[in-house]
Amino acid sequence: MQVTINLTEKELGFLQKLSLELGNLRGMQISIEDSIHECIRMSMFEESEEGI
C-alpha cells in the first residue's frame, strides 16, 4: 500500500536524524521510509507491553 503524508520540517529533521543513527548502528544506509517503519514497530511493541 502506498500512503502520502505531509511532514513538518521538525518531523522531517527527526526522521533524517533517526535514519543516520540507525544507519550508523547497523553499518548501512537507512531510508526515511525504513525509519518510519521502525517508529511504527517500536510504538506497536511499546503498546503491547502496556497490556502485561
Low-confidence stretches: none
Q: Please give the share of residues in helix.
A: over 70%
Gyration radius (Cα, Å) is 13 Å
Mean pLDDT: 90
Number of helices: 2
Separation of the first and last Cα atoms: 31 Å
Kindly describe this structure.
This protein is an all-alpha fold and 52 residues long. It contains 2 helices and no strands. Helix 1 crosses helix 2.
Brief synopsis:
With 52 residues, the protein is an all-alpha fold. The protein contains two helices and no strands.
Salient structural properties:
single chain, 52 residues, mainly alpha, 2 helices, globular
Write the layout of secondary structure elements.
Layout lengths: L8 H18 L5 H19 L2
